Amino acid sequence: MTDPLVRVEDLQKYYFEQDSLVDRLLGKEPESVQAVDGVSFDVREGETLGLVGESGCGKSTTGETLLRLREPTDGAVYFDGENVFESADLDEFRKRAQVVFQDPFSSLDPRMTAGQIIREPLDVHGIGTKAERRERVEELLERVGLSAGQVDRYPHEFSGGQRQRVGIARALALEPDFIVCDEPVSALDVSVQAQILNLLEDLQEEFGLTYLFIAHDLSVVRHISDRVAVMYLGEVVEIGPADEIFENPGHPYTEALLESVPRADTSEQGREVDPLAGDVPSPRSPPSGCRFHTRCPYAREACKRESPGDYDVAGRADHQAACFRRVEDHDYWDSPPLGEDEQVAEGTADD
Ligand SMILES: Nc1ncnc2c1ncn2[C@@H]1O[C@H](COP(=O)(O)OP(=O)(O)O)[C@@H](O)[C@H]1O
Ligand SMILES: [Mg+2]
Asked: Is residue 264 part of a domain?
């Protein structure tokens, strides 16, 4: 097999709070939010890797840190074999790796026209003559389903879906190989979501793009992903082929996510038991052992004590889950179930 286009190794990103003078005098360590804590995955050339998990689990931080839009706390990211964090010259990487953000309204400068927004990366990297840039912008506008005549319009003059098309055109301007799509349809009307997803798929095929596709909505991810990684509290708890993840989930968190996907028919009795009941623990002080143990219906003593490794699911080397239940002869099976109080007693998110 060829090397992956992107390799993320033990990526860690902590946000450190401002420590006050009093805290320092008292010798207190500055508090940190452990937003991403030891995440590893590959993205193969031409594929879409979906990255899912509840809001706040560290998806955007992962995407932004691997693009080096944020400085990592630890770990490595290899892009086409080069360590992105050690590279002194990011110019080439900045051309080849792009991002499309969730909310095109706040990510596009309201004082710039669509043409200026799309042209900016070409200006920054000094690509083409003025006339060539203009031509390229028009071509990009048309490629994403807008028209060259809309080049002088401002973001507020477009609909939400059109604005996201502008964001996509900008991401395409430098002919990238890799795009982090960070919830690109989450802010859009459902009727528009499918159009944007189709556009992204067409562009992928046409330009041989590789995507890291972030979403909190599993149904969106299923549609577009070849493989899926599931995140919980700063960690990847399961990864595998999309169909496998949906049909044979190996982690209780993935199971719960799948069960909490809103169904079309909610007329009868609604959802009586929310499979993801309970607050998400705070990433400032994540639970010991398996971080999901405070919300897991299968949690036992072993889960509180010990952090699970990545185990093959159903004997497949391409599907892994971080759950002791995947290991036939693990101590887990002999350890007592956790009491209910221990499942909710841990600190909860306070932000
Ligand atoms: N700039 C920041 N400073 C401090 N904490 C942050 C910052 N950005 C995100 N966080 C925290 O890091 C965690 C992960 O956030 P994020 O990566 O945005 O999650 P997601 O994209 O999955 O919703 C959250 O607890 C969030 O509050
Ligand atoms: Mg996010």
From this structure: no
Neighbours of ion ligand 2 (CB under 5 A): 60
Terminal Cα distance for the chain, rounded:
43
pLDDT tens digits, 114-142: 999 999 999 999 999 999 999 999 999 99
Residues 218 and 123 in one domain: yes
Helix H segments across 264-337?
A: 301-305
Report the C-alpha gap between 169 and 117 in whole angstroms: 9
Looking at per-residue pLDDT, the higher value among 345 and 216 belongs to 216
User: In the prediction, which pLDDT does 261 show?
Assistant: 66
Span from the CA of 182 to the centroid of ligand 2 (angstroms): 7
> Which uninterrupted H or E stretch holds 341?
helix 340-344
> Is the CB–ligand 1 distance for residue 117 below 6 Å?
no
How many separate domains does the chain show?
2
The predicted model scores a pTM of 0.91
**134 and 236 part of one domain:** yes
Cβ of 183: how many Cβ atoms within 10 Å? 22
Q: Does the beta carbon of 207 lie inside 6 Å of ligand 1?
A: no
Ligand 1 pocket check for 51: Cβ under 6 Å: no
Whether 240 lines ligand 1, by a CB cut-off of 6 Å, is no
Residue 346's pLDDT band (boundaries 50, 70, 90)?
very low
* Any domain includes 175: yes
The confidence score (pLDDT) of residue 268 equals 44
> CA 33 to CA 219: how far, in whole Å?
29
